[in-house]
Amino acid sequence: MKAVILAAGKGERLEPITHTRPKPFVPILGSTLIERTVEELKKFTNEIFVVINNGNEVPSTYLSFYKRLNQRYGVNFIQQGQTYGTAAALKSLEYLINDEFLLIYGDIYFDLNKVKDIINVEGNAILGVEVSNPREYGVIYYDNEKDILSKIVEKPNYSESNVINAGIYKFTPDIFTYVNKTRLSERGEYELTDALNIMVKDIQVKVIKYTGFWKDIGRPWHVIDVNKDILSRIKTDIRGKVDDKVKIIGDVIIEEGAEVLYGTYIEGPAYIGKNSIVGPNSYIRKNTVLVGNNRIGASVEIKESIVMEYAKIPHLSYVGDSIICEHVNLGAGTLVANLRFDEKEVRMTIKGRRESSERRKLGTIIGGYAKTGINVSILPGIKIGAYAWIYPGSVVNRDVAANEKFSSLQESKLS
Q: Domain Mannose-1-phosphate guanyltransferase C-terminal spans what residues (predicted)?
């Protein structure tokens, strides 16, 4: 059986993370979301296709991620072409697949053991998951006795069902007939759910109910959520070098090549990736992930945050409930506020619209290769774009665009 992973989405809601990496390559401990999926699919499939954007829309920084995935797992990359949408992505494989296949959206996190449940179904099937906010997704309506799909309604104003499309399917080649019958949606895309709604008039599609943790990674703070879920199930595994005067409480993974220096206190669950150096006298709190090759300096405190590859957080800094992307360099004394002064839920701007994170504590999202000077303070819910510079002593009280050079002192003079 073949498998298809749809990974052509632009990931605009995940910015600034996606300024420098494809959406499915968000970190899951020391790996990435898509590598985790591919590794599991290899147990059940003999060939994996990954659909990506056409060449004109692929930032140069994305290429190293694609190359790594190909070298490690031998996947086949297919460019989607000029049309948009999930049906358009699938259409690009029409002449490469002539048997049953799995299809998975590249931006979902779930218990991969459930793949077996859908593989064992005869014919076409879709995975459905119960959520508390179905109106934000494609809602599944189905025959409760026979579990046969009736229709999918995208983001309805009112929903009688709390079961939504989990983004995991098993298809026969019949699906391509209905993909070719789809028309442009209101969003200007060719939607796979439209193809399914046409298909169910002729061919039965089985609904497989999924229970367990499931997350559509559509907002930056969801990356923290999924890492927190997988951290909740780790067991202590220490392969790196740990000084005798380090205190560890709870389950912690310390990968080979990592070094934890004297006086450091680690509160699990936590993950310290390969070749990272932590300390001395640092405090790594629960649900922190250091992806790898990180440098955490003296007297630094990190709480429930994701620190990506090669990012550096030097001495006397505090980072809470945040995502620090690859190759970021924070100046000494950089402080991230993660709690509003009025203690209300932290809001963040997503595609130009203010949204509640539904989190009382949320710090900053800093894009790849950005850097701050010394003694910078960053307010809750702030996004800093890739390659941005934050000048010393600044108080960052608004979002900073990619490549922007920000100084709150200069802004004060201008006002």
A: 266-340
Helix (H), strand (E) at residue 358: none
Report the relative pairing of strands 270-272 and 252-254 from DSSP bridges.
parallel
For the chain, give every residue range classified as CATH 2.160.10.10: 223-414
Residues 6+ apart with CB under 8 A from 146: none
Q: Is a pLDDT exceeding 70 seen at residue 413? A: no
Question: 127 φ, ψ to 5°?
Answer: -90, 130
Per-residue pLDDT of 353-384, as tens digits, reads 999 999 999 999 999 999 999 999 999 999 99
> 412 falls in which pLDDT band (50, 70, 90)?
low
Q: Where in the chain is the domain with CATH 3.90.550.10?
A: 2-218
Whole-model pTM over 0.85:
yes
In terms of residues, how long is the chain? 415
**Quick check: 282 and 298 in contact, CB under 8 A?**
yes
Question: For the purposes of burial, counting CB atoms within 10 Å of the CB of 46, is it exposed (0-12), middle (13-18) or buried (19 or more)?
Answer: exposed
Helix (H) or strand (E) holding 129: strand 124-130
Which of 292, 311, 274 has its CA nearest to residue 20? 311
How far is Cα 385 from Cα 394, in angstroms, rounded to an integer? 16
Q: CA separation (Å) from 184 to 88, 174, 305? A: 10, 20, 40
> Residue 415 — pLDDT band, cuts 50, 70, 90?
very low
Query: Which pair of structure tokens corresponds to residue 384?
Result: 């800093």
- Regarding the domain delimited by 2-218, which CATH topology (the fold level of the hierarchy) does it fall under? Spore Coat Polysaccharide Biosynthesis Protein SpsA; Chain A (3.90.550)
CATH topology of domain 223-414: UDP N-Acetylglucosamine Acyltransferase; domain 1 (2.160.10)
Sign of the Cα torsion 245, 259, 323, 29 reads negative
